[in-house]
Design a protein that fits this description.
754 residues; alpha/beta; N-terminal domain of TfIIb; Rossmann fold; Dimethylsulfoxide Reductase, domain 2; 4 domains; 8-stranded mixed beta sheet; 6-stranded mixed beta barrel
Length: 754
């Protein structure tokens, strides 16, 4: 082929958070990609591209890309580096890691992987190296131990009621009667593979409800909008269940079959009554009250008809069913009380609850922002409990697909005869570095994460965490605020420069084919990890590069991806193998202690959270009593960025040139603030200065600054200088503590020099 002829290579844009992974047709002339456009799918509705995808070519050819390995020659954060070879860079890293491990053990090396990106080999490479060295995997909003995308578990809030549950909007079910988008703005954060199905359902008659402190782009498409105060979602869900129970709109048959609602709870201990308590042969089995024999029996006893509600005395022990305890909790939250807490009128709460209770099908859509309050896990549980008592939790759509089971074991447990890596959550990493608890971490490797910019309490990271690290490595595309603090800086490849396996958008899987060789001296994350592995004595585990890793993933033996190969994927996306059609009359295998949806969790009784109780936000002001910092600060996503990616792209900066703080006209007037005024947002941790945008799009008492702007794009401070890193011990007990970016109290004033 002549050098000036154009080659078309089908690849994937994985640059978005989670499941937006659009097929891309890269036009390659010579050794340069000259154009990207959406690629075809068997189903044409998946052929699409967004603003960020269209501008992604600017990332590959950006003049400020990191071009070669560098080592720091100035003070950390000063941004002074000098060019070195790959050999020197990897030798230095290997020597430093070995030295630190000899003093503190291999867990003192922390691998911090973030997003965006829906790819798998780049995660797999670092997870494999962490596993082989038995160092520490720092969970971010990337891939967790299950291999599924999380968000300090987006699924974290479902962990108690459901175990591990993964829902999907991306098959073709009949549209639900009601679709509730709760604490999420997919029109901007996930416009293609989430918002489009939502709009398709709306066109077919689905009632769209949006619950959010901001009147977002998604809210502008809603039929019903509830402007809730940040962090009060649990109270709203409890009030809706109050109405549903009062009007007997719950789905008793579903509760009986799929939840632990009928199981008896001991009032004295808060634990479930067990078979041993009634002399049953099945000593550890759960106990129900059989309404036929009017006696306690184990849950699977033949011909038993468990009672759903009520109080009973068993062998002198007072007991109530789990559902009864839930009902009693909801009685404390009539719509009138919830209205005072949430700011949503009692009438709207009541009407929505009735609609949800009477609807045949309701789909709830949410995401990370919903859980990023101090008690966000309880909010998620409350929403999930609402879905359960109305019978709106399913394992799969009728005729649909479950996610492909990716073959993560070779990465998570690279050497089956040895333990795998240790694990810390991001907030736990702060303590591990600063105080050495639960164990010391002395070196951190950052890949595809702008840690300083995007994680909670940026000031603490800069002033306390980074100075306590002996060694920092960053592999990135640009000199981000985080990269400036690296001791060794490595140039990573853009998505057009390496291959990967993309398990999205459901029901398809795709191959991200390398369109061009890496520019300058950039390398893919697999090649970077392989180079270090060779120096650490694990080179054999990285033979074959990205292609070999893709083949490992596809060799899962899972029926959903049986027959799908890398070679076949070069021709285009392949659909997951269809599962047998399922109706609701099947037992959902929830991975919980009871195997059912847990309306009541005995493991959290001592913590006062056996039920999804409403607890006030840690900081965000709910009442006017909190006056020092009277405004609740939240941070939304923007269509112009994915986290902090695209923040330096000129085409997008022309449309969205600088950060602004959105403030309600009432709050602005009280502070003599007008549009475009320079203002300072502050609390006891930091000051952030930027322009104001006065808008009805945020409710009174709330301000919003879209996250993702780089620190140097503010006059002072940044979004996450304002946030805190307080650990919720209950979250830590269950899985890991979440970051609470939407549970922050601030004040806003007009900017004053000096």
């Amino acid at each position: 082929m002549a050098n000036n002829e154009t080659r078309l290579i089908r690849t994937v844009c994985p640059a978005h958070c989670g499941i937006d992974a659009c097929g891309i047709l890269a036009h390659v002339k010579g050794d340069r990609v000259v154009k990207v456009e959406p690629a075809d799918f068997p189903n044409p509705k998946y052929r699409r591209i967004c603003l960020r995808g269209l501008s992604s070519l600017e990332i590959t050819y950006h003049p400020d890309r990191l071009k070669y390995p560098m080592k720091r020659v100035g003070k950390r954060g000063e941004g002074k580096f000098e060019r070195i070879s790959w050999d020197e860079a990897l030798d230095t890293i290997a020597d430093k890691f070995i030295d630190i491990a000899s003093q503190y053990g291999w867990p003192a090396i922390g691998w911090t992987l973030g997003g965006p990106g829906a790819g798998t080999t780049k995660f797999g490479a670092y997870l494999r190296l962490a596993s082989l060295t038995q160092s520490t995997r720092v969970s971010a909003w990337g891939y967790g131990d299950s291999g599924l995308p999380c968000g300090s578990r987006v699924l974290f809030g479902t962990h108690i009621p459901y175990g591990l549950l993964f829902g999907s909007l991306f098959t073709d079910p009949p549209p639900p009667d009601i679709l509730v988008v709760w604490g999420s703005n997919p029109a901007e954060a996930q416009p293609l593979n989430v918002m489009r199905p939502i709009m398709d359902a709306k066109e077919k008659g689905t009632l769209l409800v949006v619950i959010d402190p901001r009147f977002t782009v998604t809210a502008s498409k809603s039929d019903v909008y509830l402007g809730v105060k940040p962090g009060t979602d649990t109270a709203l869900a409890l009030a809706m269940m109050n109405v549903i129970f009062q009007k007997s709109l719950q789905n008793d048959a579903y509760i009986l079959r799929h939840t632990n609602g009928p199981y008896l709870v001991r009032i004295d201990t808060g634990k479930f009554l067990r078979g041993k308590d009634i002399g049953a042969q099945e000593e550890n089995e759960y106990v129900v009250w059989d309404s036929v024999s009017n006696s306690p029996r184990t849950r699977n006893a033949a011909e038993s008809v468990p009672g759903l509600s009520g109080a009973y005395t068993v062998e002198g022990v007072e007991c109530k069913t789990a559902l009864q305890l839930l009902k009693e909790l909801t009685e404390e939250y009539p719509p009138e009380r919830a209205s005072e807490i949430t700011g949503v009128s009692a009438d709207i709460i009541s009407k929505l609850a009735e609609r949800v209770g009477k609807a045949k099908t309701v789909t709830f859509v949410t995401n990370m922002g919903f859980t990023r309050t101090y008690h966000g896990d309880i909010s998620f549980r409350a929403m999930g409990t609402l879905a359960a008592v109305t019978g709106n939790v399913t394992a799969t759509f009728k005729g649909g697909h479950l996610p492909a089971v990716l073959n993560w074991k070779p990465f998570l447990h690279a050497n089956p005869d040895k333990p795998s890596y240790a694990r810390l959550g991001i907030l736990q990493l702060y303590d591990a570095v600063i105080s050495g608890k639960p164990f010391p971490v002395k070196a951190v490797w950052f890949s595809f994460i702008n840690f300083l910019n995007q994680c909670a309490n940026s000031g603490k990271i800069k002033n306390e965490m980074f100075p306590n690290l002996d060694f920092i490595v960053a592999a990135d595309l640009f000199m981000t605020p985080t990269a400036r603090f690296a001791d060794i800086l490595l140039p990573a490849a853009s998505y057009l420069e390496f291959s990967d396996f993309i398990p999205f958008p459901y029901p398809y899987v795709q191959l991200q084919q390398k369109a061009i060789e890496p520019l300058y001296e950039a390398r893919s994350d697999v090649d970077i990890a392989a180079g270090l592995a060779e120096r650490l004595g694990y080179g054999e585990y990285f033979q074959g590069g990205e292609d070999a890793f893709i083949d490992i993933i596809l060799d899962s033996k899972d029926s959903s991806i049986e027959g799908i190969t890398r070679e076949k994927l070069k021709q285009g996306p392949m659909a997951l193998n269809s599962l047998p059609e399922m109706e609701q009359e099947f037992d959902i295998p929830f991975s919980t202690p009871s195997g059912k949806i847990e309306l009541y969790s005995e493991n959290l009784y001592e913590d006062g959270q056996a039920l999804p109780v409403y607890l006030e936000p840690l900081e965000a002001p709910v009442s006017t009593a909190k006056k020092k910092y009277p405004l609740a600060f939240i941070q939304g996503h923007s269509r112009f960025r994915t986290h902090s990616m695209f923040a330096d792209i000129d085409a997008l900066l022309e449309m969205n040139p600088e950060p602004v703080v959105e403030i309600n006209p009432q709050d602005a007037a009280n502070r003599n603030i007008g549009d475009d005024d320079l203002v300072t947002v502050y609390n006891e941790r930091a000051r952030t200065t930027l322009k104001a945008r006065v808008t009805e799009g945020v409710r009174p008492g709330v301000i919003n600054i879209n996250q993702g702007w780089w620190i140097d794009q503010f006059k002072e401070g940044s979004v996450n200088h304002l946030t805190h890193d307080v650990i919720n011990p209950v979250q830590e007990k269950i899985y890991e503590p979440n970051m609470h970016m939407n549970d922050v109290a601030v004040e806003v004033i007009r900017y004053k020099e000096g």
